[in-house]
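User: Structure tokens for both sequences below?

Assistant:
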Amino acid sequence: MESIAVVVDSDSPSEQLLDAAKRHIAGTDLEVVVCRIVDRDEYQSEVRRKAESKERFDSIEAVEAEATAEAEAVASASFEGVAHTAVGRVGTIPEDVLDIATEMNSTHVFVGGKKRSPAGKMLFGDDAQKLVLDFDGPVTIVTDE
């Protein structure tokens, strides 16, 4: 079955992003794959920091389970009555999003983006832009106003 992939963050997902995905699937039988990617570098930094101070840290499996639960909560609340799958991973955007989209036969990706100047994108990179370049299908980028 074909699907769309919707990439959410841990804070509160953008209502504009979710609305765009809902409009896209209206009247279709597309499945929704809600992806929550925990940045690998941030996770590793947190583990090192906690290990140095002898604090307990969560295993990668525990963090991925929590990310999956967050994605499931978003999927259940936002896509009620629509077939959906929740995926949580510790990794990187766009690489893990591309992997998930391929695994789940996604034909379209929806992702939040940051407003940056072209020079800012060149200097700091932009995950959404990388998805546009690397995904073999349409990518909808929604920026908060």
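Moving on to the next sequence.
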Amino acid sequence: MTLTTPAPEVPTLVLESSERAPKAAREFVGERMREWGISDDYLARLVTCELVTNGFQHGEGPIVVRVFRDERDGLVVIDVWDGGAGRPVVRPSNCAATSGRGLLLVSELVHSWGVRELNEGGKATWAKLLAG
């Protein structure tokens, strides 16, 4: 799936890669949702937390969080960048595992998601929510 290019004024947050990054990203996305009049921001915050946590645990360098509405359908897109070369993958469900369920959960809850390489190196993992 190809995502449309967001408008030039995309709300963006740059975070240090640390255990505090997911909380800051959740708050940032929650604020954007309120600005857009979306009162139920639970899914947006959950997806953001999972994508930022992956960037923190498996990526490199700062984490960049962007949130925007797709111009074609108005759906909210969460876009998380990091400098790591690895590509996130959905792991099969394993009830004995203590981690590794984040992308499986995200893939079940969103309209679509994917990963793209960044020209400057690293990757962006994005998820388009079901409702805008």
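User: Anything stand out in the second?

Assistant: The domain at 12-128 is CATH 3.30.565.10 (Heat Shock Protein 90).
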